[in-house]
Write a structure and sequence with these properties.
Layout (H helix, E strand, L loop, with lengths): L1 E5 L3 E5 L3 H17 L6 E4 L3 E5 L4 H9 L14 E5 L6 H8 L3 H10 L2 E6 L6 E4 L14 E4 L3 E5 L2 E4 L4 E3 L2 E5 L20 E6 L4
Parallel strand pairs: 5-13
Antiparallel strand pairs: 1-2, 2-4, 3-4, 6-7, 6-13, 8-11, 9-10, 9-12
Helix pairs in contact: 3-4
């Protein structure tokens, strides 16, 4: 683990894996909730966690780099279930890449236990981990100019749901009517870092 200064009151903590970043993020949130860590913002990414609003960054950096990483993620209480129709335009290509049938892609994906590693790209877009590494797929070499809202896609080790229509290069395997971002909802985002997620198959449209 390495802690790098960012400006006068922030640190960027680097770790080696997605799993370590998620475990560190959860542990830092716990410490802040308990009152043993004073920090304004804790923002996870793929293999980093940004801490902003720190009174003494050098002291915290020394504490972090001499402490052990959390060994495991805490169990979250509530799972967000997202209904999905496995009818995406790239479903057959993903099946070929995995060397299975399209129906088996749906079964494998729906059986996985996902967790939001971090958020980005667009408001409400979560990068979900949970598929075994052997099911990673490449992005399209040429992204689509428009991907419909509610599209469920795969890219590398991640699953994601497009919260609104936008360009995108992910492999689209399904669609959902779940609303990922709603200004009238508190919180507006359905998914946040650490949220456990399960995809529930529903009938094709």
């Amino acid at each position: 683990m390495r802690a790098l200064p960012v400006g006068d009151r922030a640190l960027l903590v680097e770790v080696s894996t997605d799993e370590e970043a998620q475990a560190l993020h959860a542990d830092l949130l716990r410490r802040r909730s308990e009152g043993s860590l004073s920090v304004r913002e804790i923002v996870p990414a793929a293999r980093t966690v940004l801490l902003d609003g720190i009174d003494d960054p050098a002291r915290l950096a020394a504490q972090l780099t001499t402490s052990k990483l959390p060994s495991a993620l805490p169990r979250a209480a509530e799972v967000v279930e997202i209904p999905v129709r496995y009818d995406g335009p790239d479903l057959a290509d993903v099946a070929e890449h995995w060397d299975v049938s399209p129906d088996e892609v749906a079964r494998i994906h729906a059986a996985a236990e996902f967790r939001v590693a971090f958020c980005g790209f667009a408001p409400g877009f979560g990068y979900l981990t949970g598929l075994p590494a052997r099911y990673g797929v490449p992005r399209h070499a040429t992204p689509r100019t428009t991907v419909p809202a509610g599209s469920v896609g795969l890219a590398g080790p991640y699953t994601g749901v497009y919260p609104r229509s936008s360009p995108g290069g992910w492999q689209l395997i399904g669609t959902t009517d779940a609303v990922l971002w709603d200004h009238a909802r508190v919180p507006a985002a359905l998914l946040s870092p650490g949220t456990p997620v399960r995809f529930v198959p529903v009938g094709s449209r």
